[in-house]
Specification:
Blueprint: H1 9-21, H2 25-38, H3 43-50, H4 54-67, H5 80-96
Length: about 100
């Protein structure tokens, strides 16, 4: 079984912020898939919720587990909600370091 793994509290907060600020439905669905997977939802449950194949769910989870939110980014203009969230978190990290 595959589940999304959120490494720490900061990662959880980053994911929640990305979900809240996302304006692209297809990216929102990916983020929500990762969140629900990290909470213990099985691939079969997620396929029923989101009406996608198990391979799609596994691909989302695998991408997140490999590199976090950055792996959901494609063309910069297509995923502005993630880019702005990541930039915000990076700025906070630099400021508090």
């Amino acid at each position: 079984m595959i589940f999304a793994t959120i490494s720490d509290e900061a990662g959880k907060i980053q994911l929640i912020e990305a979900i809240k600020s996302c304006t692209k439905p297809h990216i929102y669905r990916r983020l929500l898939t990762v969140q629900l997977s990290a909470e213990g939802k099985k691939v079969s449950e997620l396929t029923s919720i989101f009406k996608v194949t198990p391979q799609t769910i596994r691909a989302f989870v695998h991408a997140y587990n490999q590199g976090g939110l950055i792996h959901f980014q494609g063309h910069p203009s297509d995923h502005s909600c993630l880019r702005s969230c990541l930039q915000s978190r990076w700025t906070q990290t630099i400021t508090t370091s």
